[in-house]
Design goal:
7-stranded mixed β-sheet, alpha/beta, binds flavin-adenine dinucleotide
Amino acid sequence: MDHVQADAVVIGAGHNGLVAANLLADAGWDVVVCEAAGEPGGAVRSAEVTAPGFVTDLGSSFYPMAAASPVLNALDLGSYGLAWRRAPLVLAHVFGAEAVAIAPDPDGTAASLEAASPGDGAAWLRAYERWRELRVLVLAALFDPFPPVRAGARLARQAGVAELVRLARFGLLPVRRYGAEEFPGHAAAALLAGLTLHTDLGPDSSGGAIFAWLLAMLGQDVGFPVPEGGAGQLTAALATRLGKAGGVLRCGAPVEAVVVSSGRAVGVRLAGGELLTARRAVLADVSAPALYGSLLPADALPPRLLDDLRRFEWDHATIKVNWALSGPVPWLAGATAREAGTVHLAGDLAAMGEYAAAISAGRLPRAPYLVIGQTTTADPTRSPAGTQSLWAYTRVPRRDWTAAAVREHADRMAAAIEAAAPGFADLVLARHLQGPGDLAGMDGNLDQGALNAGTAGVHQQLVFRPLPGLGRADTPVDRLYIAGASAHPGGGVHGGPGANAARAALARAGRAGPLYAAVIRAAHRLVY
Ligand SMILES: Cc1cc2nc3c(=O)[nH]c(=O)nc-3n(C[C@H](O)[C@H](O)[C@H](O)COP(=O)(O)OP(=O)(O)OC[C@H]3O[C@@H](n4cnc5c(N)ncnc54)[C@H](O)[C@@H]3O)c2cc1C
């Protein structure tokens, strides 16, 4: 076989790897993407796993961050087959027989919140107004490579230093405090806490409010859209675009080592021994523990980094259940829950606090908090007319999960839905389970089903993500970049880590490359 040579080799065809490959191919580079699995996408895939005609998203499903991401929008995926679909309501938070919802228009959301908690509607409109003022700068600060100097300076100019200090405080706020400070009633506070719980943070975790705020405001702004036909259509659009730009995607090609010579990444070795040479860069859409702990030789890394790796914290494990239903979920809360694409089955703030505390203590929560996807409500192509392709996931402690224990917990999840929607069980045509081991088996980055490629805790964000360092895609190995969700700005489908890695590789290979490398080397000497 001819020895493959390319300008860049990308390890992993998750959406971040595909984003990175697209940007490099756009810049005229030869790119080869090596994907371990039989198909691309990582946690952005779909298949008929419950019953014929029912499409299930196997990992992620709703994409507010993708719809708002300047990175993905610049790729114009609509021209490569991606079409967004939206449910009549964005998100419902169900408390037993009651529910509140984010509606597509802010006044609709305000009315829903106001009916449940007087004062919350007006507070929501104030929060959304503030979001509209800051939106462009917040998104730029989030998606620019770290440190976001230009976006930060514009934010300081526009908001003023006094406001910036308060924004920094907001960045550290637990969601329970945010609710208490800004929303007089219980409804918005619970809705927001439910959004924080999409991460591994609880209502009292520092840094939890900003995730809730971001997801809530994006939900109000762009909705929680889904790709028509299944999550895999987002991956298909990225892969099609890459093919048209001249990139090569090889599936069933697990990388077992990054080849390093004189402190520089020069290629990869596939399981089976094949070598691929990378003339300019290797980009790794893999977790930080996989990259630093197994793909690289230990002697290629500073001892301090290896020591930090011991302290890397994964986020919680996950159990996901997929159902084919003969009809819509018969929510006691009625249309508010039925018409939402995403549903939190969560209860009040106290219940969410107990759930989060139990998982942190390594115990199974009495009442599992569920994020539920009513995907046919969002996209009627997901299952036959009148039926529902439904999934629910919940977070669980990291431990050895046997198949029997996963089944038992899946039964608890179904029981929680039955309690809020009597008659649910009678609609079940088929059920498919994804326990922590199944999720990791589908995509090696999802260690025990960790959704976020590492905790969302403040101690592992910005310059601490994925390990203490520069918060950038550059690694201590020259021409090797970390491109996956372990890196800043972290988990979720938005392409940020992939784009940052591609930009770093282009800067390193550009005319000012030697200067760029010298600056990064000097900065690394300071932090390691
Ligand atoms: C159940 C679940 C629900 C989620 N829900 C949402 C949601 O609704 N909305 C949202 O925005 N986000 C959601 N997320 C998070 C989001 O899906 C991830 O953060 C995102 O997909 C990560 O993308 P990535 O490209 O960094 O990595 P991945 O998607 O994990 O892709 C990594 C790829 O690299 C491959 N790989 C790994 N190691 C190697 C190797 N050595 N050689 C070759 N290939 C390798 C893997 O097989 C995989 O294909 C969810 C995640 C899960 C698991």
